[in-house]
Every structure is written in C-alpha cells, then in structure tokens.
Amino acid sequence: MKPRLFIGLIFYGVSGVFLPFASVYGAPEEQAVIAIIIDDMGNQWEAGMKAINLPGRLAYSFLPFVPYGRSLADQAVKSGKEIMLHAPMQSLAREPLGDGGLTMEMGEGELKRQFSAQLAAIPNIAGINNHMGSALTQNRESMAWVMTVIRQAGDSSLFFVDSMTTDFSVAKKVADDYRVPALSRDVFLDHDESEQAVRNQFDRLIAIAKQRGYALAIGHPRVNTLKVLGEKLAELERYGVELVTVSRLVDMQARAAEVSGQTVHAELGGVEGERLNEFELF
Asked: Rounded to 5 degrees, what angle do the CA atoms 161, 130, 200 make?
C-alpha cells in the first residue's frame, strides 16, 4: 500500500508561531510514534540496570569515562536496546563536565580529539546527544567541528539528537548543513523530578505525538522517572501511540523530508509562553 502524507502542525520553539510539518507513515499501520532517551547512564549500576530492564524500544545515552558506562552499555546491547553517547559539552552555568568534556576554549584540533575519544569510550552506539551544552551548542564553529567528526566516523549512519538545553541552540541546523541525520528533543520528562510532574510530562509527550505524528522525550534513571515509565510503557496501546527507537524516528523524518521537499526541524515543543531556564537545563 502506498504511503500517504500526514500533515500536522509543529510548535516552533516558544515563539507562538506554527509551521506545517509532514511525516510519512505506511497505512494501515500508521499511528503516532514516540521515542524516549534515558540520559546520564553509567554513573550508577543499580539505577542503570533498572532503566535497561524497562520494557520497549528505549534508547540509553551513556556518559563517557564514568565507572559503569561501558559495562552497562554492554548490558543494554545484550538486552537488544539502542545505545547512544551522551557527549558532555560546556553549559552557560559552567557546571562541572567530568572527564572529556568539550569546552568553548578548545581549538579545532583539541575539540575533535576529545570528541573522538568520547566516541571511542562507548562502542556500538547508534547516535549522540549532548549532555548539558547550553553554551557550546550555541557556537556554530564548535558544532561544525562536532558534526565533522560524526561524518568522518567509521559508521556514517550515526545520528545526532539536540537535547535542546537552550532555545538558542544551532546544533540541529549545523547537523542539517553537514548532512548528519538529526532531531531535537520535544519533552524533558523529569526536569522536575516529582512523580506528578513526570506523569504530566509523559502526558504532554503523548499529546504532542498525537497532534504532530511523533514526539521525542528525554528522561533520566531517577526513581520517579523509572516508576512512571514502568507503568506508562505497559499501557501504550491505550494511548494509541507506538514506541520506536530513535534511529527509526530519524529514518521516518528523513523520509518525510524527502516527500515534503524540505528539511524537517523537530524544534522544542512547548506550551505557548513557556521557556525552560537554560541554567536549569544545563
């Protein structure tokens, strides 16, 4: 059966401007889809394993050079999960980056070497997203160096997800310019860690997906996040959405862009007038 074009609306940043968005799904299976990334993996073994044991096609993004990063990544791969590199990048608040972080002071050679070391620290990744980075992702030159390394990596299918820790990120645009498959996250599940807040954010994820056809969320291996996801993922059929891998979502949006003849921009989904403080979001 021929795929058909589904036209939805995308909320562009927090500006209140709505733009047309096209995505392609094959009938009769077509339905809204979501993807979820669990960030900050590798610091704690028990919390990491609880996250990996959640049901469904979640992606797990691992910090480089942390105690359990590589071993937990191996466990995730054995469990059939998609894994990513959670690349530390400088924030506006200059929060500590840990080992191997990318900073504004780095020249091209140093940044590329450091980022290449990050990539080597977590084998078998499907893609990358930024850890913190509200400063570095605003810097076009630094992001161009990052995208160059991704393009030159052994597997040219690596994708980049802009965690959108600032509304002023240029990471997605630079990825597009360098032909690196890329998306931007729509929802942080747990910037407020309370259980009710996580539930509200999950509902927001579903609402965006049903309005637009897809949505991408980021969460962390925190107690309430794992509790809520354990409950909600078991009843996705009731919501009428499908959980897919991030790589599949990237492929779907690439096909949509080909059909619509334009680059797909998955900008920060939000409520009109809402701005999440960059210092809160690293």
From this structure: 70
CATH number for 217 = 3.20.20.370
Domain span at residue 206?
33-256
Angle 189-175-74 (CA atoms, 0-180°, nearest 5)? Answer: 55
Whether 275 maps to a domain, the answer reads: no
- Strand-pairing partners, residue 59, are 37, 82
Cα separation of the two ends of the chain: 45
Residue 106 lies in a domain: yes
pLDDT by 10s per residue, the chain, length 282: 334 333 333 333 333 333 333 333 333 347 899 999 999 999 999 999 999 999 999 999 999 999 999 999 999 999 999 999 999 999 999 888 988 999 999 999 999 999 999 999 999 999 999 999 999 999 999 999 999 999 998 666 899 999 999 999 999 999 999 999 999 999 999 999 999 999 999 999 999 999 999 999 999 999 999 999 999 999 999 999 999 999 999 999 888 877 766 544 444 343 333 444 444 456
Instruction: Return d(Cα 263, Cα 170) in angstroms, integer.
Output: 15
Helix 45-52 / helix 69-78 crossing angle, nearest 10 deg: 20
In a domain, 18, yes or no: no
Buried b / exposed e across 46-79, counting CB within 10 Å, b at 16+?
ebbeebbebeebbbbbbbbbbebbbebbebbbee
State both tokens at 24: 């392609």
Query: How many structural domains comprise the chain?
Result: 1
